[in-house]
């Protein structure tokens, strides 16, 4: 570092992309960025409750990157799994909890939510995950997000077999 260099203002560049580079090497080719821009980090200011924060966004270059069919698969994967795990499964549990003491049909309704609503939605959403990896030509089971569902499935099977 040069003597007398100003350390108070650090110029930075940010970039956000939708496609992971093929290699962690700094020399790898980056396909495109959705947005990018400069910013300056001022290290001389102290931040307190009274300090106004400049919330004006940095200029952003508009990008006309098309939303590919793989992107739609990923959105559908997230939507279906969220709907199945965060809406239908809890509804099935709540039906069982709230209606079993006063309705003989509680189990049919519980089964309707869990087996006929949750299961197809979750399976459909799960199948879209490997399909999107295949469509991108990626490697299957290469990160924790891809391995975790299998671990949950096999641990659930193990737990169920130990109960019987």
Q: Number of helical segments?
A: 3
Q: Provide the spatial order of strands within the biggest beta sheet.
A: 1-2
Whole-number radius of gyration?
25 Å
Give the low-confidence spans. Answer: none
What does this structure look like?
This protein has helices spanning 69-99, 106-136, 144-163, and strands spanning 9-16, 35-42. The protein is elongated. The termini are far apart. The mean pLDDT is 81. By secondary structure, the protein is mainly α.
How would you concisely characterize the structure shown here?
By secondary structure, the chain is mainly alpha-helical.
Keywords:
164 residues, 10% strand, 50% helix, 2 domains, two-stranded antiparallel ribbon, mainly alpha
Secondary structure layout:
Elements (H helix, E strand, L loop, with lengths): L8 E8 L18 E8 L26 H31 L6 H31 L7 H20 L1
